[in-house]
Amino acid sequence: MSWSIDHLPAVLSLIGRHVYLAGLPLLLGLLIAVPLGWLARRYRVLYPLLIAGTGLLYTIPSLALFILMPIFIGTRILDPVNVVVAMTIYTVALLVRTVADGLGAVPDSVNQAATAMGFGRVRRLFMVELPLAVPVISAGLRVAAVSNVSIVSVAAIIGVPQLGSLFTDGFRRNFMEPILVGVIACVLLALVFDLAIIAGTRLITPWQRTRRAA
Q1: What is the CATH number of the domain that holds 97?
Q2: What is the DSSP code (8-state) at residue 44?
Q3: May I ask which residue range the UniProt record assigns to the signal sequence (predicted)?
């Protein structure tokens, strides 16, 4: 406990960096996955290509992807942008199928009713299909959030500071307390992300609360 108290400002700084490196890719990945998931659902010929193609991205080892990023985007090896881009790729890999399945779960009768009311394809997507698909997408987003918090810690091996730095520091000095602090902080951060997504989902889907109350 004494080490934790003495190094609290440093730990809080690492938490802030971890939130940035895990949270920003979550938002960017969702923005990219929504149109890709819609395309996969809208055009059947694209479904296997997009789902399998993005799914394969998740099989790339994270450490290798962090190291290879500078080759593709022209950054330095220690630039946090490498981690943001890599984590965005992983987020897209997890969410494209989720978005496609969520949109596919919207009843055809609902889509037909929206079309009959004069909704165009884009308007129907944003005002009917996506809102109804939110619970499914939210479930995938929760998985991606926890995954991001975990994978980001690997970037400490290449020198990008975040909570994973506590693991490498503790291992290098054979000192357990930084490792324990890092593990606990990662677990709590993943829990905060999860609760935030649940709260956001409930906020933008008030009809779900009404249905449960009924």
Answers
A1: 1.10.3720.10
A2: T
A3: none
109: helix, strand or coil: helix
Tokens representing residue 26 in the block: 């979550």
Amino acid at 79: D
**Residue 58 CB contacts under 8 Å (≥ 6 apart), including other chains:** 90, 93, 94
How many Å apart are CA 50 and CA 44, to the nearest integer? 10
| Paired tokens of 27 | 């938002």
Choose among 68, 45, 44, 43: nearest CA to 158: 68
Structure tokens at 71: 């080759």
* Domain count across the chain: 1
pLDDT on residue 213: 52
State both tokens at 10: 């440093």
Q: Which helix (H) or strand (E) holds 133?
A: helix 130-152
Buried b (16+ CB within 10 A) or exposed e, 164-186: bbbbbbbeeeeeeebeebbeebb
When pLDDT is cut at 50, 70 and 90, the band that residue 212 belongs to is: low
Our CA angle for 191, 22, 64, nearest 5°, is: 125
Range 96-123 average pLDDT: 87
Contact indicator for 21, 80 with CB cutoff of 8 Å: yes
Instruction: For Cα atoms 135, 92, 27, give the angle at the middle one, nearest 5 degrees.
Output: 65
Eight-class DSSP state of 19? H
Residue listed under structure tokens 């949109």: 103
Range of the structural domain that residue 149 is part of: 2-213
